[in-house]
Amino acid sequence: MEALGTAYRGVMDHVARFEALPPEAVIKQDTLRLGLRFSEAAMNIAAGFKPKDYFIFSFDLIEIKDMQHREHLRVPEEIRLEGGPLDLRSTVISVRINPESPYLVDLRDGELWLTCDGEPVGRVQYHPVPTFYHEELSNGKPMGEIAPVLEWGYLIYLTAYRMCQYFNKKEQCQFCDINRNFIQQRKAGKVYTGIKSIDEILEALEHIDRLDDKAKAYTLTGGSVITDLQGVEEVDFYLQFIEAIESRFPGRWISKAVVQAFPVSECQRLKDAGVRIYHPNYEVWGKELFAQICPGKQRVVGFEEWIRRVVDSASVFGPENVIPNFVGGVELNTVCGFDDVDRAVAHTREGLDWFMRQGVVPRFTTWCPEPLAALGPQPSPPLEYFCKLLLAWRERFRHYGLPVPPGYGAPGPGNAVFSVSAFMDVLDREAP
Ligand code: SF4
User: Fold this and answer.
1) 242 C-alpha to center of ligand 1: Å?
2) For ligand 1, is residue 261 a contact (CB within 6 Å)?
3) Which distant-in-sequence residues (6+ apart) come within 8 Å of 340 by Cβ?
4) Ligand 1 pocket check for 280: Cβ under 6 Å
5) Is 194:163 a contact under the CB 8 Å cutoff?
6) What residue owns the CA closest to ligand 1's atom 2?
7) Which of 282, 222, 215 lies closest to 255, judged by CA?
8) Record's NCBIfam families (predicted)?
9) In 3-state terms, what secondary structure has residue 179?
C-alpha cells in the first residue's frame, strides 16, 4: 500500500482526534486554511457555474499576477462537498486559490471530486449561475459585480465602498488586503467599482427581487471612512444605502451592516433605517494584539471603547442581533502573534466568554494570509488551532444557552451555508 500524504493523514487524524466535532467542520477548516487548486478539467466545468466574484477581499493565498492558469477568472465562488469515505453531509466551502494546496478539485470518472494528496475526500458540486446574473444593468456592469451572492445563494453581498481609508495612513488592519486587492483587480482588467451608487444597487436588487427566492439576507459593507466620503461621514454614507433599500424593499431580506463600532446614538440611526443585524467586527481579542493588528481602529476608537460599544449596541439591536466578527487564527501570525496553539485559543476564548456572558455571540472568519496584506504571506495556523477554537466557541455558546445567530440560515452539519468558517457547522442540526 502506498504511503498516504502528510496533509491527508493529518486531516484524518484530526477528524478522529476531535470526534466531538462533525467531520464536515474539520475538513472545511482545513480546506479554508490551505486553500484549493483546480485541475484544467475542473476549471473548464466551472465556466458554466457561478464564478468567484471577489466580493470584497481577495481571499486567495496567491496574487493574481502569479496565477499561471488565470485561476481568478475560472474558479467557482464555492464548492459543495458531500459523500466520500467519511460520508460527508453537504458542506459549503469558499474557494481560496492556492496552487500549492494539497486539496485539489478534479474530474474523476466523469464526476467532480475533492482530493487531498490524491486521496478522495468527497464529491464536489458548483453553484449554478443564479438566474438574475443574466440580467443586464443599464450601466453595463455585471450583476455579479454589483450584487453578488454567496453562501450557496443565501446572502447578497453589497460592498458599497471597495476601499478603506485606514490604508491612507498605513494603519489598515494587518490581515486586510482590500485596497491592494482593488488595485490588482483593476490591473487584471476586472470591472470593479470603487464606490457603488445607490441607483445601481437598487437596480440590481430589482432583478433579484423579481427572479430569486433563495437569497434571504443581504450584507451592506465596505471599507471604513475616517474623514469623509462624498462629503459625508461613515455612518451617513452607509445609512443612505440602507434607507434606500429598506424603503424600496421593506423587510424583503434580512438586513445586515458590517461597519465600525458606533456610539449608541448612531446605532439607533442604523436601526431606524432598517438594519436588523449589526456586525461591528473586533477582529482580534485583547488590547495589545488589537493595537498591533488593527492600528487604525485602535487610534480612532481604541480597543476598550470598541468592545464597550459592541455591547452597548445590544440595547439598540437586541443582543442576538449584534454579531461581531473576529479573524480566527490571526492571533497566531508570525509577526506579533502567539507561537503556541493552546495559549492562542485560551486568549481568544477569554474574548468569547466576555461577549457571550453579555448575550453577544461573536462569529469568526478563517484567517487567509493574503500576500497583499501587511502581514504578508505566511503559513496558516495549524488545523489543531481551528478544531480547538470551534470547541471553545461551541462550549461557551452552550454554556450561556445562547440562541443560534440569526441571518445565517439553518445550523448544523449538512445545513450550514456560511462558507468562510465552520462555526455554523458545529451547532446542532435544526430543520432547514
Ligand atoms: S477596517 Fe480593517 S478589515 Fe475593514 S476594510 Fe479597513 S483595513 Fe480592512
Assistant:
1) 20
2) no
3) none
4) no
5) yes
6) 173
7) 215
8) variant_rSAM
9) helix
d(CA 410, CA 78): 18
C-alpha–C-alpha distance, residues 51 and 67, integer Å:
16
Q: Is the CB of 132 under 6 A from ligand 1?
A: no
Q: What's the CA-to-centroid distance between 173 and ligand 1, angstroms?
A: 5
Whole-angstrom distance, CA of residue 151 vs CA of residue 219? 12
Distance CA 11, CA 33 (A): 12
Residue owning the nearest CA to atom 1 of ligand 1: 224
Half-sphere exposure of 181 (CA within 13 A, CB side): 25
- pLDDT for 432 equals 53
Cα-based distances in Å from 298 to 224, 261, 287, 293, 301: 13, 12, 9, 9, 6
| pLDDT value of position 430 | 73
The gap between the terminal CA atoms of the chain, to the nearest Å, is 42
> What are the residue ranges in the chain where pLDDT is below 70?
1-4, 431-432
**CA atoms of 412 and 149, how far apart (whole Å):** 21
Alpha-carbon distance 205 to 329, whole Å?
A: 35
Give me the count of residues in the chain.
432
d(CA 222, CA 194): 10
pLDDT at 2: 45
